[in-house]
Amino acid sequence: MQPKLKSKVRAADREVGEVTRVIVDPLSREVSHIVVGGNGAGTLERQIPMTQVTVVSDDLVELRAAVADLAQFPVLKREDYVTTHEVEIAHLEDRLHVECGEVLVPLPELEKNVQRRSFFTNFTHAIGVLISLPLVFPVLKYLMKPMYAPFDNSWLKIGSVNKIKAEDVGVQFKYKKKVKEAFMPEAEIEKNVWVLKASPKVLDAVYKGKDMEFHDSKGKVIWTNKKDVPYIAFSGKCPHLGCGYKWRSHKVLGQVFLCPCHLSIYDASGKVLDGPAPRPLDPLPIRVAASGDVEIIDMEFKAGTKAQVRIV
Question: Most exposed among 4, 146, 151, 197, judged by the fewest C-beta atoms under 10 Å?
Answer without folding.
Answer: 146
